Amino acid sequence: MKNSIATWMHKRPKFRLAALLAAPTLWLVVAYLGALGALLVTAFFTIDSFTGNVIAKFNLGNFHDMLTDPAYRNVVLRTLGIAISVTLICAIFAIPMAFFMAKIAKPKSQKVLVALVLTPLWASYLVKIYAWRTMLEPNTGVLDWILGPIGIHSPGFGGPAIIIGLSYLWLPYMILPIYAGLERLPNSLLDASGDLGAKNFYTFRRVILPLIFPSLVAGSMFTFSLTLGDYITAQIIGGKLQMLGNVVYQNFSINLPFAATIATIPVAIMAIYLWLVRRTGALASL
Amino acid sequence: MRKKRLFSQIAAASAVALILAGCSSSNNKATTTTLPKVDALKTLGAGEGQVNIVAWAGYVENGSNDPKVNWVSDFEKETGCKVNVKIGSTSDDMVALMKTGEYDVVSASGDASLRLIYGGDVAPVNTSLVPNYADIFSDLKDQPWNSVNGVAYGIPHGRGANLLAYRTDIVKPAPTSWGAVFDANSPYKGKITAYDSPIYIADAALYLMKTKPELGIKYPYALDQKQFDAAIALLKVQKPLIGEYWSDYLKHVASLKSGGTVLGTTWQVNINLAQSEGVKVEGIKPVEGSTGWSDTWMISSKAKHPNCGYMWMDHIVSPKANAAVAEWFGEAPSNAKACALTSDKNFCTTYHAADAAYWKDVYYWNTATQACLDGRTDVKCVPYSEWVKAWSSLRNA
Q1: CB contact under 8 A, B95 and A138
Q2: I need a labelling partner for A155 at 20 to 30 A (CA). Which of A119, A129, B20, B123 fits?
């Protein structure tokens, strides 16, 4: 019985391919693209101004409201600023850590270090952010308690707090691609660079950085896109600051079409970002 | 080369779309004014085994907050209806939850009830199936927010006022006016809070009503464009003073406890919870009066467990349960017989349950409509959907 199915499939390579790709294609087209499409279509609908029921008539009113109100421009710029800051901070912390893990640590410790970097991902997002709330609480928080005697105060809740919290959360996602990239970097290149007379920073700038650039890009895609859509951190440690995700969250229950309109912004930003990344050629060498 | 062309085509298409969008005009002028035809339950049958409730925090307590605070377990034992409760943090939240059709009963405030009625999300209530309805205070029955054309759409739960909370050990001297949260030179800048909902615009309008009579505001939920803009301007003055806007009552209480918030709008239940944790905080109704709410238990038009729903509504306004929830939350009960059953014998007096004069300067949450609620016909008032947009703009700017 099994033999004849195997023979049948062996004679039909196209069917084998279709069977292999059926499940992922279904997921991609129906679940992912279909859901995205349904959301984007809703952006063109409107709601009854009294009862809030969705009216499925095509109109551009939501886009008009979004483009003419300066508040939404501010939210977009603020969110972009936070996303860029988080990406830069994660990169600055991740590169030295990944370099130590890939090049300096003993092979036995490498595995332990990778496990340690991954461990925070096991803890719930909310637990970590509430922990940061306790740390950043003005006057009574942990940071004030530790740093108060030397005169430094916690930044309190707001933009800096959001950047700190998100950098903390996404750091493992930045470390791992860079670690993978650095592992592939042959040590002989670093030796050769030293032999040719390059100082450490020169080697880093002209040899290591260009070679790990694709990994940096891969890591930045995580940190950038995850930050663009985040709303929970802003709610818990953001004080009264709002990010794009908060606007969507507040509107999706009372004005779904408008929330869908706002949601097209991160989609557009990520499309532009990916196009820019593709132009640098980084995606080709991933 | 092909890929370059494709990209430039996409870019051109997006540019055209954006120009079209920018040149189009805003809409949302569609408004429902016809009442949907929904039938009330005719007879009460056997319980269905469970009931799904959307309620304000503190309304449906089953002992998990405080083992002595429980009016759900006895209901579940008596009727066999297991209670599943979802806490709504704002009226907008509750309206959205009821639209899903997954819930049977909701405790709606006046700024949600009319939207639910006209949206077809709730059914009229057959008050003959609710025996305890007869004992409800008459000035809560058949009000503009819980009935339409003489048909009752819900069972009154109780009423309360939004209060001004302040940390007695930090804010000195004790505040007496809402001016304390609108004062641009406040010494408590960055530690003030406000309720995170578009309905808070009414609080700004109330303050203007009492301090700037030249604006001519007569009712905080009937604002023409000029009055509305003045209220938004006041909220913009307030924004730099705000540390956090609150809608989650537990985060708000934690904030009062840690001193991150020392002054701002609150509910009595938050004051009670904070005081039980040892926080030195008080809540007052300032001299200008306050916004407030008169909540109504309503039954969903798509309720899957209508019998249990009606049994719950009858239970929660029964004298014992109504007294318990009123004392826990800190609001005036709706059942006249509840006053004899409160553990604090002066409870009804303190909360002015039967004192009509106290409620004269409490403006219950209501739904702003284009037809001015104060009766003016010479101007159009700003409808609630515009309140939502303006609030979103204010919060995001």
Answers
A1: no
A2: A119
pLDDT of residue B28 exceeding 60, the answer is no
Out of B24, B32, B386, the one facing A60 most closely (by C-beta) is B24
Confidence category of residue A282, pLDDT binned at 50, 70, 90: confident
A53 chain-B contacts, CB cut-off 8 A? 32, 99, 119
Chain A to chain B Cβ contacts (< 8 Å)? 125
Contact B394 A140 (CB under 8 A): no
Termini Cα distance of chain B? 42
Strands (DSSP E) found in B97-187: 105-108, 122-123, 147-148, 151-152, 155-161, 163-167
pLDDT of residue A152: 86
Give the model confidence (pLDDT) of B205-241 as tens digits. 999 999 999 999 999 999 999 999 999 999 999 999 9
pLDDT in tens, B159-217: 999 999 999 999 999 999 999 999 999 999 999 999 999 999 999 999 999 999 999 99
Which of B22, B27, B31 lies closest to A50 in CB terms?
B31
Domains of chain A: 63-285 (1.10.3720.10)
Nearest CA to CA, how far is B16 from chain A (Å)? 13
Domain boundaries, chain B: 50-160+293-356, 163-266+367-396
Q: Nearest CB to B118: which of A51, A72, A141?
A: A51
Contact B322, B333 (CB under 8 A): yes
Q: What letters, b where the CB count within 10 A reaches 16 and e where it falls short, cover A160-180?
A: bbbbbbbbbbbbbbbbbbbbb
Give yes or no for a cis peptide into B173 (omega within 30° of 0): yes
| Residue tagged 């991150």 (tokens) | B260
CATH 3.40.190.10 fits B50-160+293-356, yes or no: yes
Is A65's Cβ below 8 Å from some Cβ in B? yes
pLDDT tens figures, A130-167: 999 999 988 788 998 898 888 888 888 999 999 999 99
Contact B231, B209 (CB under 8 A): no
Is a pLDDT exceeding 60 seen at residue A48?
Answer: yes
Fold agreement (B50-160+293-356, B163-266+367-396): yes
In chain B, the residue whose alpha carbon lies closest to the alpha carbon of A137 is B260
CATH number among 1.10.1740.10, 3.30.70.20, 3.40.190.10, 3.40.50.720, domain B163-266+367-396: 3.40.190.10
